[in-house]
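Let's practice the habit of predicting before peeking. Look at the sequence and jot down your guess about where helices and strands might fall. Then scroll down.
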Amino acid sequence: MIITCPHCKKRYSISDEGIKKIRERSVVPCPACQGELPSSLFAAQGEAPSTPAAEASPGEDSLKYRLAQALKDLPDMPQAFDQARGLMADAHAKSADIAHILEAQPAVSARVLRLVGMSLYGDPESVSSIQQAVTVLDVKTLAEFVVLACASGLLSRELNGYGLKAWDLWRHSLGVAYCARELASRMNPDMMEDAFLAGLFHDCGKLLLDSCVEDHSEAILPLVYKEKQSFQDIERGVLGFDHPQVAADVCVKWRIPKSLVVAIALHHNPSRFEHNPLACI
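Done guessing? Here is the structure:
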């Protein structure tokens, strides 16, 4: 594995056996500058860095406990998400398969019909039935709309801590998803769908951190407007963790494939995982 010290930027090539030994240590200093090397550098490929919300109890730091509670309160991903992804990967999937998914989950179906109508005709009310949607779209495209419908129901809420109105996060996430797919089509076409999903959920950690950011606004706002620091650095400095880091916990709850979690957790620092092409996209 190739790792890069975030302090002095020196790079090291470490064997798998060396990585195993390093993971057993609580603090790992850089041999060159003696700066502490974050544990996330030594996560296995496809393995998410350790995150604060996954294991927290009332006796621990109150912010970590709040994140754990926020994670529990976060709505579940609809079952239609997994079913639709399965159909997208199935070359033999039929229209009846996607119709069956939608008929069984009316809430998702309603969002799908609105998305299809808006996309095709510029009118969310123009497609009024599952049969109509199945008629005008192929299975793969309609399955993608199911994935988007599931995500839109989870990423559309207002985030006061980040100054985002309702649907702002969704619009941003959707834009990133399509840009990531386009980049993948040029760099590695086999990764187009993974890049799309990673882009769609890359900022989901903000759903957990929002109330914490809002509560610490007096400390955060001067750093944003006067010090001109990046918001990710401010999150780490004030809260002790950042939104890409806690996004890994959200991904686990929402059953996002493990192969995408590292890319999502490190989307602001892809150089830490140069061997992971999805993170670089």
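How did you do? The chain has a mean pLDDT of 84.
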